[in-house]
Amino acid sequence: MSETTSASGGRPGASGGGRGRATTGERVADWADGRLGIYGLGRKYLRKVFPDHWSFLLGEICLWSFVVLILTGVYLTLFFQPSMNEVVYHGSYAPLNGVVMSEAYASTLDISFDVRGGLLVRQMHHWSALIFIAGLMVHMMRHFFTGSFRKPREVNWLIGWTLLVLALFEGLFGYSLPDDLLSGAGLRLVEAATLSVPVVGSYLSFFIFGGEFPTGDSGEIIPRLYAVHILLIPALMVALVVAHLILVFHHKHTQFPGPGRTERNVVGAPFMPVYLAKAGGFFMMVFGLLAAIAATVTINPVWVYGPYRPDQVSTNAQPDWYLGFAEGMVRIMPAWEIDAWGHTLNLGLFIPIVAFPLLLVLLAVYPFIEAWATGDRREHHLLDRPRNHPVRTGIGAAWISLYLLFLLGGGNDLAATQLHLSINTVTWALRIGVFAVPVAVFVATHRICLGLQRRDREKVLHGRETGVIKRLPHGEYVEVHAPLTAAERHTLTAHEQPRPLEAGPSEDANGVVRPVRRAARVRALVSRGLYGKGAYVRKPTAGEYRRLHGTSGHGTSGRPDGDADPAPGPDTGAVATAEPGGQPPADA
Hints:
It catalyses: a quinol + 2 Fe(III)-[cytochrome c](out) = a quinone + 2 Fe(II)-[cytochrome c](out) + 2 H(+)(out). The protein is mainly α. It has helices at about 25-35, 40-45, 55-75, 105-115, 120-145, 155-175, 180-195, 200-210, 220-250, 270-295, 300-305, 320-330, 345-375, 390-410, 410-420, 425-460, 485-495, 520-530, 540-550; strands at about 50, 85-90, 100, 270, 335-340, 345, 465-470, 475-480.
């Protein structure tokens, strides 16, 4: 039956005969469609298909934690006083009665002890910030290891990376607002790092703090942090989240390879009503879990630390985990200084504040480095299995190990006391580990990926081990292997194994010297590192499978990406396509 549309915009049978008078809701919908085109948008997006895989929930954890952050943050702004004016506290927390403190700290105590539900909301806000950043980092690692950052999602990758950077600073500014002893110690480190910048450090410090630390000439730092924390950064983050979701809808969702899944389709459930119902239920789960954690686990008890005083510092002062790696850089860095022309350059602080953004920038630029090294200009909507890209997986694992070392360095004093070691021993172990551990992790991860590739190859060719031992007529004992299904063979062999770029010959066919640009040599070198010798274990071809099982044993419908259908190479004349069967170079 053909579908008719109303003259007002497209709802089927809006005023057709036999239906009677349209309901109020239908009339409102028709009015809105005539001005906004909602019927067309609904047809296009409400039935959009989303794949079903547990790893996609990581992005939803980020989204719903961010929603909880916004909701709880709005509630807290109703009671918080962002002022450094000194007051004498007279409130419900008796141990601090009569103590001089800032209005910011006093209002934080009021929220915690006198506002109904204030402590619960405050702790929900803090816990959701921790879980949001944790989910964001794991979500980005999932995208990194599966290669979903490739064309056309480079912009979305940069949006996610920018969200991560903004979230780090948003967290720093947020837990600095209460003006307690712990947050004041953190701001003191920020001031010291700012002063270490050559030439302009003192000017930057005066600009940020409004004068001498900690209060400046008129106590401006808390109001400034408050404005940035509740207005500027949240507005940017909301805009980026909306842009991220729009691009997810526009590009369609990535999916893992499998039968029936190609670069041109998506296999899964529609957005409305299946995915929307799941997302709504998952939001309730995240909200409930955050409320349960906040109600049972104390975090940031500012009343224990007391108000900030420049002449004091709290023991066991540790930042939130997501900034622990920045403090770890400072703690394990030697206290080097350079005196020149009457000025002192504090390398012990300057080098860490330079390494801090570089560690993050490495994440941002990697997708472009990989695209440049492969010359691949095609769109990719199928994800990679991490084992099939050992170099990329090794780089990601090495980055994580370096991050964890710096994070451990942020608590080197606690590690020393808990393990009954000298703090110098812990610090020197971390200094050596920063150079040795990432290399060891890269090598180990690379070897593990190659081992998993070999196992996949054996499973495709010989089947899965069953544990059943059979005795052959001549007395030999063998284990019976169960052949994989066609779907399983396809999943294990659907990936490509591209060959590395070549810089080209130094002479042409006539013996004339052909100039090779340095950029081309560097590009070929990086490409060989990613896809050259040792990067792959050659995946089985259809010919190998037929020779082992016979040409009619299992047919060819489930062939593992064989000779007749090689994996296409990147769309550029400078890149050779894969060998038959998707094989890498012969020496791999």
